[in-house]
Every structure is written in structure tokens, then in C-alpha cells.
Write a structure and sequence with these properties.
alpha/beta, eight-stranded parallel barrel
């Protein structure tokens, strides 16, 4: 895989910047989707999170519809739906409805994490005792509901039945790699917050992949934080919004996205800095030239099929510019 052949996409968490309303945040997500569509990005995914004052993508299926309605060609999907939070039938019907409205443009990425804290996970009705058994069973149920053969089943997904909706397995550990390989499904890894096991997960996935009818070869998407700017110095300054978000995560201090700062040492402790930098160790931050070099290094190590950029910067127009520079870096 060369940089020029790499597919490039967006993972949007609908970050709520300090002072912004929810409506403004979601409008910005649509504006971003339209912008990257014009730049030739492959897909625009939204992530399910709950009980987080900095993230507005909790009703993921609803937001996918909003984005798909406002765009024309870019694929739109979940990165992902946390499947154990839901009934498989409900997700099949929701995504069947989306695919019926926007044919050929909907992706269903699924994960097993709660996407939130323990108390909220309980409020979602999750049973942690059966997650490892439940998640593969629910994926099988989705495929059944989407199949034409289920037309004689006692329970049918209408809309959904007979529709060609690709299912992607999401993960942040090696467990998901084994499952994606066993099921013969494409695999997306959350390198933007859990980079430690990414290399091993990809190795497991590739070496154990069982070809399926739809996906005869393994397919890997890597999500990572990318902040591109006109200079390295500006990119480093913009990245302090991302650093602050992870400091708040470490502290369990729920805040909206904060404006960038000149000196992170006034905010984090030395131990927090070490922890945050480890969690963000695969982040790609810099000018076009720096991003291009780091992307080539990244590809040499991980050999992914598609890169999914997460860009958490404070100013919306600056975020648009970051995605423009990223496209320029990839296309040379």
C-alpha cells in the first residue's frame, strides 16, 4: 500500500466546543461532511457515546440520516454502533431504513464497548456477564435480518431485509481482531485512543482471516488523530485542545472541548502528560510535509487499506483546513 493509493476517511465524534450549542455542533458536522465529500474522502463515520458533555453523537442512527440527507456521494455510517446497547432487530431496522433512503451509501460499523461509564452502561441495560457471547451472536442476527433468505423467518427486519449493508467490526484490542478474522469481515481499529495493541491486532487479523463471499481478502481501517496545519508550530498549538480532552478523560472531568493553549505544562501534571502522550502515541500532527512523512512511516509499519482521521480542534474552519491539508499530503 502506497500513500497515493490509500483511502482516506473521517471519524467524527461531533465534539462540542466550549460555547457552542448542540445544534451548532451538528450543523458543523454536516458542513464538515459536505466539505470532505468535495475533497474526495471515502466515508464519514459517527461514533456512539453517551453521557459525555463534549460529544453529541449519542443518537448515532439519527445523525447518520442527517448527514446522508445533506450529502450526495460520500458513504456515511457508524464507527460505531455499540451493539450490546441495542436490540439487533432495532439496529437492522434503523440501518435498513437508512439504506433504503440512501442506497449504496450506508455502512454499519459495530463494537462491543459501552461507549460510556459504568453507571450509564447500566442505564443502557447492558449485561456485562454475557457481552463476549452476545456480541458475536448479535452480528449473526444482523446478517440474518439483512438476508433475503429470512423472508420466511418468524422475525423480519422491514426495512432491512435483502439489503446490501456492509458490516465492519470495530475494536481497540486483540479480541476484536480474532472475531473479525473468524467472521471474514473488515476491521477498524481505534488507534486514536487505544494504540498499544494495534500492531498485534492487525497481525492476528491478517494471519487468521477466513475469506467470506463479500470480503475475500482482509480489509483494515486505522482510526488515528490527525491535526494538520500550515506549520508544525500551528499544528502543535491546535493539538492542545486534543491533549486537554484526554487530560479531562484521565481525570474524569467532563467538559466541552477547550480552546488551545500556549503551554500544556500549566494544565497537566508530569504523570498525566506521560499517560496522555501514551494514549495519543500514534497521533499525526504537523504541517503538510510533516504529516506526509509521518503517514509514510505509519503505512510502512501498519500497511492499512484505509486511514480514518479524527481531528479534534477547537475552531470549525480550522478543522476544515486540517482535512484539506491532509488530503494534499496524501495525494502529494
Amino acid at each position: 500500500m502506497t500513500l497515493q493509493n490509500l483511502k482516506y476517511s473521517v471519524l467524527d465524534l461531533a465534539y462540542i466546543a466550549q460555547g457552542n450549542t448542540i445544534k451548532q455542533t451538528l450543523n458543523n458536522s454536516l458542513d464538515l461532511a459536505r466539505y470532505v465529500e468535495g475533497l474526495g474522502y471515502t466515508r464519514f463515520w459517527l461514533a456512539e457515546h453517551h453521557n459525555m458533555v463534549s460529544i453529541a453523537s449519542s443518537a448515532t442512527s439519527v445523525l447518520i440520516g442527517y448527514i446522508a440527507e445533506g450529502t450526495n456521494t460520500i458513504r456515511v455510517g457508524s464507527g460505531g454502533v455499540m451493539l450490546p446497547n441495542h436490540s439487533s432487530l432495532i439496529i437492522a431496522e434503523q440501518f435498513g431504513t437508512l439504506e433504503s433512503l440512501y442506497p449504496g451509501r450506508i455502512d454499519l460499523g459495530v463494537g462491543r464497548a459501552p461507549g460510556t461509564d459504568g453507571y450509564t452502561a447500566m442505564a443502557l441495560g447492558r449485561n456485562p456477564q454475557i457481552i463476549n457471547e452476545q456480541f458475536p451472536r448479535q452480528i449473526s442476527e444482523l446478517h440474518t435480518y439483512f438476508s433475503e433468505e429470512n423472508k420466511n423467518g418468524q422475525v423480519r427486519a422491514i426495512p432491512g431485509e435483502g439489503l446490501d449493508i456492509p458490516v465492519y467490526i470495530l475494536g481497540s484490542s486483540t479480541d476484536s481482531a480474532w472475531l473479525a478474522a473468524e467472521l471474514g469481515l473488515p476491521y477498524a481499529f481505534a488507534g486514536h485512543f487505544a494504540p498499544d495493541q494495534m500492531g498485534m491486532a492487525f497481525k492476528i487479523y491478517r494471519e487468521n482471516y477466513k475469506p467470506s463471499d463479500r470480503f475475500p481478502k482482509p480489509y483494515i481501517i486505522a482510526a488515528t488523530n490527525i491535526i494538520a496545519a500550515d506549520t508544525d508550530e500551528e499544528a502543535e498549538y491546535l493539538s492542545t485542545t486534543l491533549y486537554q480532552a484526554f487530560v479531562n478523560l484521565v481525570r474524569n472531568d467532563r467538559k466541552s472541548a477547550q480552546p488551545p493553549v500556549e503551554d500544556m505544562d500549566t494544565i497537566w501534571s508530569p504523570m498525566e502528560a506521560i499517560q496522555v502522550r501514551r494514549m495519543l502515541s500514534l497521533s499525526i500532527i504537523g504541517s503538510k510535509e510533516t504529516v506526509q512523512k509521518k503517514l509514510n512511516d505509519f503505512l510502512e509499519v501498519y500497511q492499512v487499506d484505509e486511514l480514518m482521521a479524527v481531528t479534534n480542534v477547537y475552531d470549525h474552519k480550522v478543522r476544515l483546513r486540517s482535512y484539506e491539508i491532509l488530503k494534499e499530503a496524501i495525494k502529494g
